């Protein structure tokens, strides 16, 4: 692989709302699955490597705040398209008694949906020149279906040129036309993927499979690395790795599981791209996710953010 690396994470960054009381105190943040992963990847990957966030934003005040956040987190934002007259999407988090999250969305006409659209059809040139491209099933879900298919064609050329594709299925039923189509498109992404970062729950829901069936299916794909995330239980390692005992401690006081999977992906990728060691990468992902679920919201502050505040 090239050194230093040029990594792109693409998808949708949104306004994240947490209602403590309604009416009453509301907290607004900037988050979104691939953005969260990019932020955590940036924290783990050594500084000589470049991490860009690729999306489309509007030209409004909130889009400007998002660009500021991208820069503040040390991410490159030069490939971000601006789409006049479109706005960023919004989602709210609802937590149950165990800290398990669910989402409501206002994003069906967001700027990010236009990320690759031109008058001449889908154009992926904003992804040219990267060594690693990371995205998710959420990012696929928000694209027109013709663009998803064109992306898979582009991906084959990218891989022929030596590009590495990392993927998390992050299944959100509300964003897809149907479960069948989500399953078909996600399957294509899994067959093109080099570093696979699925969550067990999402894969079970998407394919109607048991845990055993999901694990068996993932043994058939030909990954260089990856891990199946299983919440508090140890992840299942994928690809080639040295069999070694790792311990994955359980967090019992969970405040909010939002971005557990996203932060795991960021830690995993940052460590795997540095050391090419799947076990070490999974441990790094787990340590990061364990810290993230002990705070509310997707992006937890760094120790230096806390000292500034
Ligand atoms: N209670 C917990 N204790 C320790 N780690 C956890 C716990 N819940 C989640 N994690 C970590 O977060 C990762 C992602 O969680 P998971 O729920 O599987 O993903 P997702 O949020 O994508 O559904 C897990 O692989 C694990 O590393
Ligand atoms: O649904 C979306 O589009 C979002 O981006 C919302 C969340 O920030 C992430 O999806 C959290 O993902 P988990 O790591 O699975 O908790």
TrEMBL record:
Q: Kindly list the biological process annotations in GO that this record carries.
A: D-galacturonate catabolic process; D-glucuronate catabolic process; DNA damage response
UniProt xrefs under CDD domains:
KdgK
Q: Which domain of life is it from?
A: Bacteria
Name this protein carries in UniProt: 2-dehydro-3-deoxygluconokinase
Which residue intervals define the domain Carbohydrate kinase PfkB in the entry?
A: 6-303
User: GO CC terms on record?
Assistant: cytosol
Question: Which PANTHER family does UniProt cross-reference here?
Answer: 2-DEHYDRO-3-DEOXYGLUCONOKINASE (PTHR43085:SF15), HEXOKINASE FAMILY MEMBER (PTHR43085)
Query: Upper lineage ranks?
Result: Bacteria, Pseudomonadati, Pseudomonadota, Alphaproteobacteria, Rhodobacterales
Does the keyword rRNA processing feature in the UniProt annotation? no
User: What protein family is recorded?
Assistant: Belongs to the carbohydrate kinase PfkB family.
The keyword Metal-binding appears for this protein:
no
* Any one GO MF annotation of this record: 2-dehydro-3-deoxygluconokinase activity
In short, the EC number is 2.7.1.45
Q: Which Pfam families does the annotation name? A: PfkB (PF00294)
Query: Per its UniProt record, what SUPFAM superfamilies does this chain match?
Result: Ribokinase-like
**Which keywords accompany this UniProt record?**
Kinase, Transferase
Q: Which organism is it from?
A: Thalassovita autumnalis
């Amino acid at each position: 692989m090239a050194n230093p690396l040029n990594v792109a994470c693409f998808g949708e960054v949104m306004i994240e709302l947490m209602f403590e009381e309604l009416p009453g105190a509301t907290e607004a943040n900037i988050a979104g699955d691939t953005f969260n992963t990019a932020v955590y990847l940036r924290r783990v990957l050594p500084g000589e490597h470049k991490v860009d966030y690729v999306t489309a934003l509007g030209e409004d005040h909130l889009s400007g705040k998002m660009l500021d956040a991208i820069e503040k987190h040390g991410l490159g934002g030069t490939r971000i398209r601006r789409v006049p007259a479109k706005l960023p999407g919004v989602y709210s988090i609802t937590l149950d008694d165990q800290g398990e999250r669910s989402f409501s969305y206002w994003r069906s006409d967001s700027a990010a949906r236009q990320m690759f659209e031109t008058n001449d059809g889908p154009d992926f040139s904003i992804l040219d020149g990267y060594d690693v491209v990371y995205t998710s099933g959420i990012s696929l879900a928000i694209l027109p279906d013709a663009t998803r298919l064109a992306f898979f064609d582009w991906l084959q050329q990218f891989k022929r040129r030596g590009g590495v594709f990392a993927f998390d299925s992050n299944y959100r039923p509300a964003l897809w036309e149907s479960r069948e189509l989500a399953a078909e498109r996600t399957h294509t992404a899994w067959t093109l993927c080099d570093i696979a970062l699925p969550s067990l729950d999402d894969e079970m829901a998407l394919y109607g499979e048991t845990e055993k069936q999901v694990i068996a299916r993932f043994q058939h794909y030909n990954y260089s690395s990856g891990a199946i995330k299983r919440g508090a239980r140890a992840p299942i390692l994928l690809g080639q790795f040295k069999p070694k005992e790792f311990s994955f401690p359980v967090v019992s006081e969970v405040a909010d599981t939002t971005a557990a999977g996203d932060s795991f992906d960021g830690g995993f990728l940052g460590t795997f791209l540095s050391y090419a060691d799947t076990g070490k990468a999974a441990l790094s992902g787990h340590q990061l996710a364990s810290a993230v679920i002990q705070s509310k919201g997707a992006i937890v502050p760094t120790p230096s953010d806390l000292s500034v505040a």
